[in-house]
């Protein structure tokens, strides 16, 4: 049957004969003459033979039947697809862009149809028949037409359509084709620009892959800069979306390559430098490496020196100000904060009213001022921040989407001013702004929960000031609403529990109703268990629990301390370097000592020892954890090796996650922490690793007392105690009732003042002061311990070795030298042979390597450096004498090597430490109080730092004599960490170390060295006799040549 179709005009009315026109239907502007066909053409038949096709006639055949069916009919869809193919062919042969535009419009129409009618599963237009697709790919114009169509499809956000055109364009050319690099670059540009990685990560991954291919093909091409920059940008984007630090590292490399391709004055060079700084800044946020932040700030400053228009000056000022603000938050240098405010002000001046970034600058200026206020307490600075917050608010209309953030920012500033001035008007206005913000809160539970928390906190404070019960009741209601609204993985959950705890404590103070107190502690416990808040916030929550438990003398106090120590351990784990971990540990001064005091007060002495071991010397614990435990696990079978690799991988990812976690990455962090915990549990199922990452138990710690008792001297906020650990049985507790934390601090201060009085005219007076001080230490600290030891004479006879394990301020006292110093009365050194150990575990680790009854002495090296190059210290004239003494006293059987003066370089010293089991170091020692890991021995060409030493991981080392100043004393901020050169030598492998607690006298030190080595040789050159040799030297050295201060400056550490 023959059917006659009439002419159709798509340019006319909103209706056509086939049915109602779809809303938004494109204007196709097609007029076709009527023709006769037997039936509508089938999809896929139009392009069977490109060379013989009359495309005008085919177009007519596809257009006329459109009037037969309504738009929603499936045949209508098939005809539209065929019509699009016809126009695509016209474009191939004529290169007329009009036809390409028609193709795109038709495809959009098809896409809308399929969205409205998903049941009609039509194939994409270019996929209509394998033969048709093959013909298109072989056509000489197919690449250029399809790439243009691809890019237009991307711009119109039609990903499926773009993918079809991309495949035709890209797959039709091999890598050897002359247009391949250009096509590849166009393809990835469109991929990256058109598809947000948030919605289409595979598209971004394809872009990265093809940028890399294009870069390889165009290594000598002038566009190489743009390819480096584009690839770096794509990698950085993927990093932001998925927290891939490897990708960020590659991005940094490509930005570096891009900026090197142009002279420094070229705009592309500056652009690449700017992006490089931004990437460094991103990496700093994850790795916390200060060098990245410093480099970014340096680049921003260098770009400011030359103004060539890109990046714009206000952008650079803004970026530099942010970098300085972050550095201030890291280092606490007020100069950085002042400069940040200065640069933010300069950027704000360049962003005049009407500038699109002016609100952002106003917010940044206000934030910097709030930080300044928190440090200085200067209310005028906070007033300036509030003025800026109000200016931001004035820029937004009542329904503007940014008004919400402006209201919250202003309210936060007003609350801060209230806390300073106690002006209730500020608090009242802040509450009004929070309430107004609730009506503008963005959709989603996260933002609302945070705002509810802010408002509840303000109302709780208002209740404390005004006494209106409805304020507290509303605060409770808001907090429970926020609690119900928060997912278990969101960081705000921790703060909600903390705020609820505070509200219950406030309520209990008024009612004295015990269930309110119990509810308060339940929420303190819940807050400290919220892993989602990140390690730092979880640690702070646990510390709040500790403080509350001590204030209320609550039964949960010991659990609170355990939680805090566990959280601190996790917090320290997030540190990406030993320096970062040390900064974290500074935030918990005395935590382990207070935890042990709590256990002692509850008559749990064994628990006290375990808690001290868990919370002290964390820097060394974490270093040992990765050096021993993980390595031992990896040395097992394939299963154990895989577990070790996965543990290191997950640990690295945890360290690279921002802390506290950003809202956008909260679920990622929560899942990562969950995976880490599950992996640790799997490792603990391996034989021999049941206590992996867990603190040692008392049964394991008893091994430390194998050769003599270990005496833990604990000073805490609530008590001072001595605990004697023996090889068997329960540790013995000795309360030091007449001693307080303040008393020990005063003893430490007095001793420092004695050491500072160095004038020769004060020599005799200082000697008298020192003796009086040592008597005081004996009476208050050491004598009660000696009395207890004398009562254990069967177990600890006179002359036995004892190990002191002091905490906090006790670490700065010369306990080994205490005594009555009266004729006929023995001093401590006359009764026992003293050694020190930072922890019981450190002593066990060194003893654990003993495999022989009398270890074989291998090689001895003496390293002497009297005059390091560039040093401001005076030359050490006794070093030469000291080296001669050591050489002369050693028996001929000892293999002796000497590094002296020019030979005593940094690399030479480190190499000698690796190659010798016995070491004597005679040189300047430097204690760095600010960064104790930078403490060092001064060599000819540079320092051998503590960081250098702990990286050695020495094997089969026995003894080290450190004849250098301050080699065995740590910093005052973290005395429990025992971060000093002697501890570093012990950690790196030396089992027995002699070091110094203060400065050494160059004129007399060789007498002590001579006496020690003489006694050591007589005892058979066994490192285990080093403590005895030192004890004898103190008693036998010529007292006319060596003062008391210089006789007791040396201490023994280790086995």
Automatic annotation (TrEMBL):
Domain of life: Eukaryota
Protein name as annotated: Uncharacterized protein
Taxonomic classification: Eukaryota, Fungi, Dikarya, Basidiomycota, Agaricomycotina
